[in-house]
Amino acid sequence: MAESKTVHSPLLTYFSVLSLLTLCPPFVILLWYTMVHADGSVSQTFDYLKQHGLKGLIDIWPRPTATAWKIIACYSAFEAALQLLLPGKRVEGPLTTMGNRPVYKANGMAAYVVTLVTYLGLWWFGIFNPTVVYDHLGEIFSALIFGSFVFCIFLYIKGHVAPSSTDSGSSGNVIIDFYWGMELYPRIGKHFDIKVFTNCRFGMMSWAVLAVTYCIKQYEVNGRVADSMLVNTVLMLVYVTKFFWWEAGYWSTMDIAHDRAGFYICWGCLVWVPSIYTSPGMYLVNHPVNLGTQLALYILVAGILCIYTNYDCDRQRQEFRRTNGKCLVWGKAPSKIVASYTTTSGETKSSLLLTSGWWGLSRHFHYVPEILSAFFWTVPALFNHFLPFFYVIFLTILLFDRAKRDDDRCRSKYGKYWKLYCEKVPYRIIPGIY
Ligand code: NDP
Predict the structure, then answer these.
(1) 175 C-alpha to ligand 1 centroid (Å)
(2) Domain boundaries in the chain?
(3) pLDDT of residue 269
C-alpha cells in the first residue's frame, strides 16, 4: 500500500492506536464532565478521580440514552439528505496516485446555511430547544464514541469486501488497516461520499451547531449572552463559514486527497471535532466572562484577521494550481518549481510547487494563522483555568506532526524537486525559527 510510506512507523502506529482507543474516549468524557459539572477545573476532576478511582470514572460516564441516539440519528439523516439532494456545482478532486479523479457535488455552503437556519428556526418557533442538546451532551458524546467505533469497523469491512475504487488496499496488517483506513474515498452508491459526510457534513457542521447551542444555553440560563461568549461564537462561526465557503478546496487537501478513511480520520471527525474542538464554548456556558467592548472587539478583529490569512494561504495555493501558475501572487508572477513524480501505476506526471507568497515564507505557513485563530476564540475564557486552552495545545501538536508527515510524503513523492523547494524555502512552519 503506497500510503503506508506516508504515515508513522508500525511501532508508533500501534502506540497511537492503543492510546487513541484507550485514552481518547475517557478523555472526551472527562473533558465534558469537567466543563459542565466541575467548573472547568482540572484539579477538581483530578481530586474526584483520586478519591473514587476507576469506579468514579464509570459512575460519571453517561450511558447513551434514547434521546441521545434520536438527536444523532435525526442530525445525521438531515445532513445526509442535504448532501445528496441539494444542488451544487460538479467539482473534480485531484488526481489520485492510482490515476483516478473523484467527482464531488459542491453544495456545502447551501447545506451549512440550511442547517443553521433550520436549527435557529426550530428554536425560534418553539419546535425544538437546542438546550436539550446541551443537557444531553454527555450522553451524546458517549453514543458517538461507541457508534463511531462501530462505523469504523464497517469502513474496514467495506474496504475489504466492496471497495468503491482502485484507490484502496490492505497493508496486510489488521491494525494498520483499521487505524489508517483502506479506501481513499469510500462511497455508498456512486454519489454518497463517506469522507465528505464524516469530515464536513457531520464533523465540521456539528462544530457550528454546537457553538450556537452553547450560546443559546447561556442565553436561556442567564437571560443574556456575555461578550466573551459572543466573541467565541462569532469567531468559530466565521471559521466554519470559511470552511464551507472553501469546502471544494478542502477536497484537495491531505485529509481527503491523501488520508484514507479509517479510525484516525473518521473517529476524529465524528467524536473529537464535536467534543474537543467546541470545548472553549462549552466552558464559557457556565463562565460568562465580561471582557468589555473594547477588549472584545480587539480579540474579534485579531481572530478574523487570522482566519482570513489562513483562508488566503489555502486560496493562494489552490488558485496557483488551478490556473497552472498563470495567476498573480501578491501582485507579481509567482515563482515556482515544476516537480515531476511517478504514480503507483508507473505514469510520469508533474505538479507545480509555489515558492512565493505565503508558500515562500515557510512550507506550512498556513498553520500559524490556524493556531492563532484558535487562540483568539479561546482567550475570551481568560486564564482562570487551563482546560479551555486544551484545543489550542492539541492543535499545535497536531499541526506540527502534520507538517512533518506532509514533508515526508512530499519528499517521497517529488524527490529532488522537494529538496530544491526545501533549499528555497528552508523553514517548515515558523519563518526564521522552525
Ligand atoms: P494542504 O493539503 O492544504 O497542503 C499540503 C499539500 O499541498 C501537500 O501535500 C502538497 O500536495 C501540496 N503542496 C505543498 N507545498 C506546496 C506548494 N509550495 N505549492 C503547491 N502545492 C503544495 O494542507 P492541510 O490539509 O494540512 O491544510 C489545509 C487546511 O486545513 C489549512 O487551512 C489547515 O490550517 C487546515 N487544517 C485544520 C486542522 C484542524 O484540525 N483545525 C487540521 C489540519 C488542517 P500535492 O501532493 O498535491 O503536491
Answers:
(1) 26
(2) 7-290, 291-433
(3) 96
Pocket test for ligand 1, best of 247, 366, 376 (most atoms within 8 A of CB): 366
* Mean pLDDT along residues 326-346: 89
Separation between Cα atoms, residue 100 and residue 316, nearest integer Å: 25
Burial 177-197 (b: 16+ CB within 10 A, else e): bbbbbbbbbbbeeeeebbbbb
Q: Which of 317, 318, 371 to mutate to test the pocket of ligand 1 (most atoms within 8 A of CB)?
A: 317
Q: What is the pLDDT of residues 52-80, one digit of tens each?
A: 999 999 999 999 999 999 999 999 999 99
State the pLDDT at residue 358.
97
Question: What proportion of the chain, given as a percentage, has pLDDT over 70?
Answer: 98
User: Concatenated DSSP letters for 241-274?
Assistant: HHHHHTHHHHTTSHHHHTS-SSIIIIIIIIIIII
183 C-beta closer than 6 A to ligand 1: no
State the residue for C-alpha cell 515526508: 408
The CB of 139 under 6 Å from ligand 1? The reply is: no
